[in-house]
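Reading a protein record of the kind used here takes only a little practice. The record below shows the convention in full:
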Amino acid sequence: MERKYNTEYINYVRHGESAAVFITRDIAKEIPTDGMWIAVVDGENKRRKDGRWDFKYFIIELFPRIINPDYSKCISEEDKKYTTWETAHIDIEKQRSKGYHGVKYKVIPCLVNRNKDRFIVKKAAWNNRFNQWVPDRCFGSSCEWRERKIPVDPKWEYEIVSVKKL
């Protein structure tokens, strides 16, 4: 049976809040997130062509975990993520309705390519007649084998530029 997710959860994933929570929880070691829910309060971000989120900044608020998720109904990893989000959403709303204000942090992450300026060298076919690289299967009398530098696939990771307690 396929589970239906509500609009708020879809927007949470679609607009980058889930990425901001991941960055806060797993990369921003300066923020004490153990036993806490992370609520994204504000931010400026954009989605890149490759699907990754590029953040100028985001602001999060921490709330203590009072309610714990019940994973007994979950069958997939995606369902577990939804159950976690749903539990956090309910717990945070209850705490806010009672007037609780969590500690806020402004996080400025940077998306960096760890493989920038890295190349592999391999033999490839160069066509002297047309002065261009050609597929190996097109190797002919006007071709020669040369060493060709090929960029290594990008390895994108987030780094934390700044964390400021508000």
About this structure: Strands lie at 36-47, 53-64, 104-113, 119-127, 132-134, 143-151, 156-165.
